[in-house]
Amino acid sequence: MLESEVIDALKYWFEKKVIEFETLENNSFVIGLNFEDPSIQSHSPKPEDYKPLPEKKEINAFTQQEFIHHAKDENLIQLCRFAETCFGRTLSWKDNQTIFDLYNNIKLNVEVIKYLLEYCTEKNISNITTIEKIGIEWAEKNISTLEEAKSYVYNNYYFRVLKSLGMGGVSLTPTHKEFIDKWLNVYKFSIEIILEGCKKTVAQINSPTLAYLDKILTEWHKQQIKKIEDIKKLDKKHEQSQKQKYQQKNVKKIPPKTQNHFQIRSHNWDFEAIKVLEKKYNDETDW
Questions:
Q1: How does pLDDT run across 173-232, given as a tens digit for each residue?
Q2: Which end of the chain is more exposed for a tag (fewer CB within 10 A), N or C?
Q3: DSSP string spanning the chain?
């Protein structure tokens, strides 16, 4: 089916008030189901036949018509496309509601919302309700710029790393920040990988230090570690290598087999001479 045919079909259902449909300037369009026209409501039993349900209150209880009205906002269009890239899927109506809520009602900065989506994607947070809760938390902390959002996240990272090394009561120093910034910004490690390095540091030495952790993470960077599964594979490979070295070190050395071990010695006996000696012996012996 041609694109023009699809658009004609959408326009037809728009005229029948089944959907909301509006074309935008960038050759895209926005559609939504029309739940407000009584003519397309399904026939159902009378309301008095049922007990009334308690009214559900939602923060983002706006209609699709409101969303479509704001859909011409270039910032909202960018946010929705950016969210689709982060999620790797088409946005649901709930996704659109949440993004619209963060942008239009909670009034988070566009760059802050983008960073929020990146942050949640990095932490494998895909639940849109959880993402909204984090966004509300940032708004309550008066985070209004990208720099403030990054500072808030990074400060959280700093103290999580120090706490994981048993240094929770230590004041953050420029050296601490230098190490952690390198792991985050140069090595591009997620906080989960850094915390995994903390676990290994604590397990290997009695007094964990950032310098020792840096050796572990630097080696992981050389090995192109990108996720926790890569660390597990590297650990398994190292374990097999150590096991092989141990077996080679403790194997018993068996002397090489030579022909001397199996050679049957020959004395080149002269049987005729033996018979002569035997006869002489018998003749001289008086039985």
A1: 999 999 999 999 999 999 999 999 999 999 999 999 999 999 999 999 999 999 899 999
A2: C
A3: --HHHHHHHHHHHHHTTSEEEEE-TTS-EEEEE--S-GGGSPP---GGGSPPPPPPP-TT---HHHHHHHTT-HHHHHHHHHHHHHHTSPPPHHHHHHHHIIIIIS---HHHHHHHHHHHHHTT---HHHHHHHHHHHHHTT--SHHHHHHHHHHHHHHHHHHHTT-TTSPP-HHHHHHHHIIIIIS---HHHHHHHHHHHHHH-SS--HHHHHHHHHHHHHTT--SHHHHHHHHHHHHHHHHHHHHHHHSPPPPPP-GGGTPPP-----HHHHHHHHHHHHHH---
